[in-house]
Amino acid sequence: MKILIVRTFPTIMDLNTYNIQEIGLAKALAVRGHDCGIIFYNGKASDRIEKVIFEKGNVQYIIKIYWLKGCSFFKNGFMPSIKKIVQEYDVIQVNEYDQISSWMLYTRQKKPTVIYHGPYYHEYAKGYNLKCKIFDAVFLKLRKYKDIIVLTKSEPASGFIRSKGFKNVYTVGVGIDEDNFRLEETVDCPLDIDTSKFRLLYIGKIEERRNVFFLIDVFEKLASVYDDMQLIIVGDGDDEYVNRFKKRINHLIELEKIVYIPRASQKEVALIYQRSKVFVFTSNYEIFGMVLLEALYFSIPVISSWNGGASVLIEDGINGFIMDTFDKEKWFQKIESLKKDSELYNNMKKNAHLKICESFLWDKLADDFMNAYVKAIKQWEKNNI
Predict the structure, then answer these.
(1) 223: Cβ–Cβ under 8 A, 6 or more apart, which residues?
(2) CA 219 to CA 216: how far, in whole Å?
(3) Could you say which of 75, 112, 246, 330 would form a disulfide bridge with 380 (CB–CB 3.0 to 4.6 Å)?
(4) InterPro entries from the xrefs (predicted)?
């Protein structure tokens, strides 16, 4: 089967520093014998084709990436060349029901099309809520769409999509590509090995949505009680917000209580995970949170606010904790419980890795996507005979 995965978001991806979901899925599908292509937005640069070559079981596979020239309008990517490329494939996968380019593909149905959707309604996501309200009024109901097959990243996303009238909705989650974390060469890690420290880890953007100032409040309380407590922060953001955040943590950096790393490659991140004890994620709203998936893969118990990813990845009290409040004392208590109870901590470590390996590797999820593609093709053939 020839499968085309279309990412319509108007962001230019960096294949070296980001765990890209489209590539992880395409690799798992290619290993199953399918011909996979991926469309990425390329801004004002000209169209070009890049081939990603990888090996599995001593067999070489190739994925074709189409970098397409386009324009951006209210976080919608428009790439004129999509129309021609679509004709070369048997089935199309688009991201998000509310992307206008996605809508044009899944409603026109020139080829069988599946939607892969992540966002969901949340009171914090006011901009997205408004965008969907406008999209639904202006675009959604102009054409038939209710029978389109939709795969989602979480149960909250499934409920959200069903509320729009879609009937064939299935929760599949998100996978991880193990190849991104295999260290086949010497990598210099910006974080040293120090087993005397109880290291908490946060990886993500430094921004208001991620609630990073609350994270510091929790950490300061922990550090005031435990001398060996250390927080590792990996991530960057808009200059103004980052500068304000750095002023807040500078004294803790000077005391070596916090280690701040603005950027790290995937290989470096793999080592940082391995040198940390607990992953702490205080985000106000998160579509999924690949870092939760990665942390669990590296056997790190996760303490996270409730969000799409946490709802499917974390079994509360088994491989981590899901927090339904931003009460500093309650977050303190959960982290402290993992520091003080080694049996609880070690059980969570074991269960964390097991959960991902059993259910959330792309190799495991590929069958769910293939089932959706087959259903979409049968439905399309029925409607077009």
Answers:
(1) 229, 231, 252, 257
(2) 5
(3) 112
(4) Glyco_trans_1, Glycosyltransferase_grp1
What does the domain layout of the chain look like in residue ranges? Answer: 2-175+361-384, 179-359
pTM over 0.90: yes
Kindly give, in sequence order, each residue whose CB lies less than 8 Å from that of residue 105, ignoring residues fewer than 6 positions away. 6, 82, 86, 92, 94, 113
Contact status, residue 212 vs residue 305, Cβ threshold 8 Å = no
User: What is the rounded CA–CA span in Å between residue 94 and residue 6?
Assistant: 5
Architecture of the domain defined by 179-359: 3-Layer(aba) Sandwich (3.40)
3-state secondary structure 165-185: CCCEEEECCCCECHHHHCCCC
DSSP secondary structure of 43-80? TTSPPEEEEEEEEETTEEEEEEEEEE--EEETTEEE-T
Domain 2-175+361-384 falls under CATH 1.20.1530.20: no
Phi, psi of 321 (to 5 degrees): -130, 140
The three-class DSSP label of residue 10 is coil
Q: So what's the pLDDT on residue 19?
A: 75
Cβ contact 132:157 at 8 Å: no
Same topology between domain 2-175+361-384 and domain 179-359: yes
